[in-house]
Amino acid sequence: MANMEYNVPSERWPAHPETATLEGKNKFIGFWTFLAGETALFASLFATYLALKDSVPSDDHLLAADLFQLELAFVMTMFLLTSSLTSVYAVYHMRNNNFSKMQLWLGITVLLGLGFLALEIYEFIEYTHLGHTFRSSAFGSAFYFLIGTHAFHVCIGLVWITLLILRNAKRGLSVYTAAKVNTAALYWHFIDVVWIFIFTIVYLLGVM
Amino acid sequence: MAEIKQEPISQKKLEYIRRERTKEMRQQMVSFALMIFLTFVAFGLVAMDLDASFVIPIVIGMAFLQVILQFYYFMHMKDKGHEYIKLMMLTGMFFAIAFVTTFIYIVWIGAPIE
Amino acid sequence: MASATKKRGVGPVIWDYMTTVDHKKIAILYLIAGGFFFALGGIEAMLIRIQLAVPNNDFLSAGLFNEVITMHGTTMIFLAAMPLLFAFMNATVPLQIGARDVAFPFLNSLGVWLFIFGGIFLNLSWFMGGAPDAGWTSYASLSIKSPGHGIDFYALGLQIAGAGTLISGINFVTTIISMRAPGMTYMRMPLMTWTTLVASVLIVFAFPPLTIGLFLLTFDRMFGSSFFLVETGGNTIIWEHLFWIFGHPEVYILILPAFGIFSEIFATFARKRLFGYSAMVFATVLIGFFGFMVWAHHMFTVGLGPTANAIFSVATMAIAVPTGIKIFNWIFTIWGGSIEFTTPMLYALAFIPSFVMGGVTGIMQAAAPADYQYHDSYFIVAHFHYVIVGGVVFGLLAGLHYYWPLMFGTMLSEKLGKISFVLFVAGFHMTFLIQHFLGLWGMPRRVFTYLDGQGYNTSNMISTVGALMMAVAVIILLINIIITVAKNQKVGRDPWGDGRTLEWSLPLPVPHYNFAQTPLIRGLDAYWIEKKENDGKMMPAESLDDFHMPNNSIIPFVISLGLFVAAFGALHFASGKEWAIDAVSDLPQHPWALWVLILGLAIVFISMGVRSWKDDLGYYVTKEEVLKDLEEQERGAK
């Protein structure tokens, strides 16, 4: 039994391949624990943002209500929500041991994520032109730190999923790679969870 | 440590698992539709320029609803084996609300609560 | 692999420790590095006490004094107490739950190297233009104004070390949740494991707010943002909140594992089952939860308003209840036991009254109106040294003596141990008891000297003499360690003779795979049960077979090094820039800073990519190898 049994033949493909090994189970529990920590991290960011919202040095500085556009935030939300669904598809196919479809849906997730990121960069450039920058006010600092940390998470998620698609292209699906894909999918969903609070608390409550 | 002790799955069992998965996928589609719907309503309410004290609690409530859908259906928190995870995320959320509340009310800008 | 640790040169041994993922070796790394920083923090403490020994002293200048007190606090909390606790957690927890390693051996190694590099970075400030000088709490109103790079070292060094702690916390939670041996239910876990679990959960929730707080400080000082700059809309109270949201749970992160160590020691040397085990578990969890709900009691005098003060005041007093439960349970454990006065037991016995005194003054400060009197006086200094030295450091010293045979296979001298115990405990009370009164007489904390004729002279001298006694005690402890290592007299299985929990059932030195066969756990105090009801051998839960172990890796070291390099880039990034804050805008510009920052981060991300790209499948320990080891142990026992 001294050889590795990661490559399970399809008739023995487990119902939950991502947690079939002890390593997979550890990854699953460890990553959720990490996400719990991320909750505290983003809570601190939201708290800082709310404390410093519209806190600007002079009267002529732009405030949240002047800046945010609902249309853009709405489109970005749609991109990210849909990408969350596509990564659900990827996990579904992973559990069904359907490697090529899993890769396809992961690829679509990355494309949607890129779309979201592009809009976010466009938004940042817009605001910078309007004089709302990281250094212009405490409001600006808090805004860019909160949204920027989320955008940084999106970047990490994109690089991570892309790396997984590439590295698994030759290796195929095994209980070893399944655990990796599942973890990345959880991460991607969590990014979406954070965004739900961002569009509600920053954008929706911001324009009111 | 690494090897899995997975018995071959019988044809019947496999069909059952597949069926369950399809069912789950249907649930996920429904929750996605709900999430899109909630997003529409939230943006709509704000765009309609209603009274803030009416809109804010609703919009925040809907955000929590969306997050619950995301956690339970997209991230499989409804499945068994997630008891510890529910406990951790609930604790995290509780702390998160505590942090945010303090930062709104007691950062000593203006009048702190009496 | 690790089985080939017979006689080797220095080079391979160092390489082995740099790449190791074995929790027992990582425990030793934590012990050595933590011990080093403990000595450093101790030297700083001595400098403070020498400066304050007589009025109007000029042994240290005012500025240097500020740097010394800041570094003393920061070093002791982040670089000494926490790593030393991690040393014992690493050394015991996987063994107590019957696991062959932690859940993420790679991350375990990453955690220790991040801590070591963070600690080195922080202490390099001494040689690179001055240490941080805004106190260990580094309140933003003060730290933003602090000229030079001191605070930058604080923010970046703690960021790196804190990342390591967070990673280790996640690792321990996962290990305890998912890697317990068959039969090891939650309510059969030894208290050390329970307290580690709760402390790790606290780390998971408490360190991210610190991360954010440190980022805000970093951005303000090095990247031109204005979170704390009032003139552009900033608010320095945010730092206080974030720091104490982290800082209060932090003291429970420190004390809970110490409680765990004491619980093990009381049960072992009273030769009794721990009294009220389930109440102890309940109290541990409750302390952990309350620990998060009370942070603003550090900020009563900020002016949060009576409502907020009242809420946090009541919540703070509530913590006394579970802590009281614990104290009574320990006393009842000793009650009627057949007590053996070993060095660890002596520390444990001294801990109870010392810690209760610290706890009682804590309740005094929890009353918000009274706290206005105590705030920023030596009363506070006395209080937190009573809980941290009387609780955590006693726990560390007790743990050092108690777990030394488990970690190194030899016994520390009991005679020297008892001498250093007497000196340490006497010196501790002499140093800090009088400081309560100094505080009530009006001596403020963090002042570098005081005038003659205020009635502080004698008390400060007593305090300094007490501190000297503690220093002598630590030197005797070091001599003890050196003698023990030089003699190298090996001891066998269950060296204390009364081991109750699973870790003592293992042969010494513990094989690198810990358990030849995963044991079956039949109840609380698993090993004791087998000793009383059986032949004193753990029953195996699996047949003897090949099993799987993780590979060593240098990547954790490289990632930590990358962050270390990046930190130097960030440090000099704002120097002399026009947008920089006043504190660093006069310094010479460093155009290379950005490139160093990018280089460091590139090292980090490329290493992470490599780690993700390669399959790391580990290796197998064969049945034959295990059988050979078992035979050898058999022969050794005869």
From TrEMBL, chain B:
One of its GO terms (cellular component) is plasma membrane. The chain crosses the membrane at residues 29-48, 54-75, 87-111. InterPro entries: Cyt_c_oxidase_su4_prok. It holds the Pfam family COX4_pro. It comes from the Bacteria. Keywords: Cell membrane, Membrane, Transmembrane, Transmembrane helix. It is found in: Cell membrane. The keyword Calcium does not apply. Its main location: membrane. It is a multi-pass membrane protein. This is Cytochrome B6. It comes from Salinicoccus sediminis.
From TrEMBL, chain C:
Its EC number is 7.1.1.9. Keywords: Cell membrane, Copper, Electron transport, Heme, Iron, Membrane, Metal-binding, Respiratory chain, Translocase, Transmembrane, Transmembrane helix, Transport. Pathway: Energy metabolism; oxidative phosphorylation. InterPro entries: Cyt_c_oxase-like_su1_dom, Cyt_c_oxase-like_su1_sf, Cyt_C_Oxase_1, Cyt_c_Oxase_su1_BS. Pfam families: COX1. Residues 9-522 form the Cytochrome oxidase subunit I profile domain. It is a multi-pass membrane protein. This is Cytochrome c oxidase subunit 1.
